[in-house]
Amino acid sequence: MKSIEYQKLIRDRIPEIIEASGKKAVTEILDPGEYLEKLHEKLDEEAAEYHETHSIDELVDLVEVIYAILDFRCVSRTEFEELRLMKSERRGAFQRRLLLKAVVEAEEATEDDQV
């Protein structure tokens, strides 16, 4: 019997989808520390897949992972959105498409400038 190893976090309904295809899914329930570690790995995986494909579907997966992290950290979507809006008001969003090319420090005043 052929077996393929994955060792990755999956969506909740994947085992039943696998079993509906006539295969057997071998799973385990992670402890909280392992779960958070796997969520962080999944976040990186989904971001990499988005970079590769630019697919909106991958953005959906990214948001799902973000929601799972929020749930794990007991942060509601409402609280998260409030934090996002506060940060957007304080620091702006990305609407103006600005690229920071450099920061030039002001010249220090010399003694001659002070006379």
Helix content: 55-70%
Strand count: 0
- Could you say which structural class the secondary elements and strand pairing correspond to? mainly alpha
- Helices, by number, come to 5
The multimeric state of the shown protein is single chain
Note down, in words, how this protein is organized:
The protein is an all-alpha fold and 115 residues long. The protein has a domain of 62 residues. Helices cover 57% and strands 0% of the residues. Helix 2 runs antiparallel to helix 3. The chain is elongated, with a radius of gyration of 23 Å. The mean pLDDT is 95.
Describe what is shown at a glance.
The chain has about 120 residues and is mainly α.
What's the SSE blueprint?
Blueprint: H1 14-20, H2 32-53, H3 56-72, H4 77-91, H5 111-114
Notable traits:
57% helix, mainly alpha, 5 helices, 115 residues, elongated, MSMEG_1276-like_NTP-PPase_dom
